Amino acid sequence: MRFGKIQYGLTVLFIFLSVIGGAMSLNLWATRQNIPTTATVTEDIRGWMTLKQVSEAMNIPVSEVKARLTLPVDTNDAKSLKELSSERGLSTEEFKERLFQK
Amino acid sequence: MNKHSIFHPTRRISLLRNASLIGFVMLMEYFGIRHQIVGGGPQGSPPLDSYCVFGGVETVWSYVTKGQFLQKTNLSNLVLFTAAVLVTLLTGASFCGWICPFGALQEWISAIGKRLFGKQFTLPIHVDKPLRYLRFVILALILYMTISTNKLWFEFHDPFKAFFGFEFELSPGFVILVLLSLLSIFIERFFCKYLCPLGALFSLLSPRSFIQLKRQSSHCIGCNVCNKSCPMGIDVAHAENTGGDCIRCLQCMENCPKPEALILEAGKAPSPPIPHSTNHRH
Predict the structure, then answer these.
(1) Which sequence ranges are marked TM in the entry (chain B) (predicted)?
(2) I need a labelling partner for B267 at 20 to 30 A (CA). Which of B31, B149, B208, B231 fits?
């Protein structure tokens, strides 16, 4: 069976998009990240996590999280580590490490 | 209308392919910008890694052995990888020529090189041939490091992520991106030919694809126009079928003066591929 050039190109796109569309319709398409339920090492903490999410994952109070990160007590709990670190001119990794420093 | 214009009726396939590539490039740019603006996590926008086909290759081991995805990857990566494998098994490595946004960038940068120098440069065959195996070495290295570190080891070296993720600060990925962009000015699809780990994987599946790009020697006049137009440096003019390195961009078919010399045919067993040779291009 012969394929024309245009027919071939459309077939390529149709197959690729059909698999994605099929997966979406079957609820097999997931892109969002889950909040880690426990965090014991720096790698478990993500830059997008808010202070509240960090406290829940590390099972410590938010005030303790703020203290470890040397943040003022009135810092907004809904701010992410990435936002807070960039406000202070630090890298997110550097900031995350503070959480586990004894 | 100028015969070389992409809007010329004889170049409809190039127009369609470039429209497809522009669409996928824009989609990736959108995902990258959205993630930068909104941020990640359940409350934000997914990272670019979640839309990466190669992420599916990297995370599959962790998913099969531990039932969990590597950080920043998700089920979407496995879906995209499955889609790309299915496309390759049915149509050849057309993902590289029709969908891959990073391949598109290289192709467009090469177009600048062609305008500047009037041609693209090729490596001598004794360098070109062994260098193509580098893709497999890179694939093996990435898989080994990903499995042993249990994270996306390649992400810091990934030029795709550096570009589409707007990570333009000095990092290994950014340096590789700049180097590849410079090399692409001189050598068309340098990354695809010599470095792409995903392309390496597809080149193993492509020779067994359902639809093959074949040369009918009875119709071929041996003008070598196909060789000159091939961005992957395949010796199309002397092959029965174009083999694993062919990205199915169909530029050879578009430029061929004999409509029956190169055909896309399905359902027959492939003939043995002929080795590529950059020396036949000129």
Answers:
(1) 15-33, 78-105, 133-154, 174-205
(2) B231
Residue B205 CA to residue B94 CA, distance in Å, equals 11
| DSSP element (H, E) containing B204 | helix B197-205
What pLDDT sits at residue B9?
Answer: 73
Residue-level pLDDT at B282: 43
Judged by a CB distance cut-off of 8 A, whether residue B86 touches chain A is yes
Instruction: Set out the domains of chain B in order of their start, with CATH numbers.
Output: 12-204 (no CATH), 212-263 (3.30.70.20)
Q: Does B130 touch chain A (CB under 8 A)?
A: no
- CB within 8 Å: B76 and A19: no
Instruction: Please write the tens of the pLDDT for every residue from B15-54.
Output: 999 999 999 999 999 999 998 888 888 878 898 999 999 9
State the pLDDT at residue B36: 87
How far apart, in Å, are the Cα atoms of A52 and each of A7, A31, A33, A97, B42? Answer: 53, 23, 17, 17, 14
Query: Counting one residue from A and one from B, how many pairs have CB atoms under 8 Å apart?
Result: 115
CB contact under 8 A, A11 and B254: no
The closest of B272, B171, B69, B253 to A93, measured between CA atoms, is: B171
Contact B266/A at CB under 8 A:
yes
pLDDT tens-digit map of B118-173: 878 889 999 999 999 999 999 999 999 999 999 999 998 999 999 998 877 788 99
- B248/chain A closest Cα distance in angstroms: 9
Nearest residue of chain A to residue B254 (CA atoms): A5
A6 vs B16: CB contact, 8 Å cut-off? yes
Cβ–Cβ gap A11/B91 under 8 Å:
yes
Q: Quote the percentage of chain B above a pLDDT of 70.
A: 93
Angle at which helices B75-91 and B53-66 cross, to 10°: 120
- Candidates B74, B37, B32, B40; CA nearest to B56 is B74
Q: Would you give the distance in Å from CA B112 to the centre of its chain?
A: 19
- Which amino acid belongs to residue B273? P
Give the Cβ contact number of residue B276 at 10 Å. Answer: 25
Are residues A43 and B151, on separate chains, in Cβ contact within 8 Å? yes
Residues of B in contact with A32 (CB under 8 A): 41-42, 46, 74
pTM of the model: 0.86
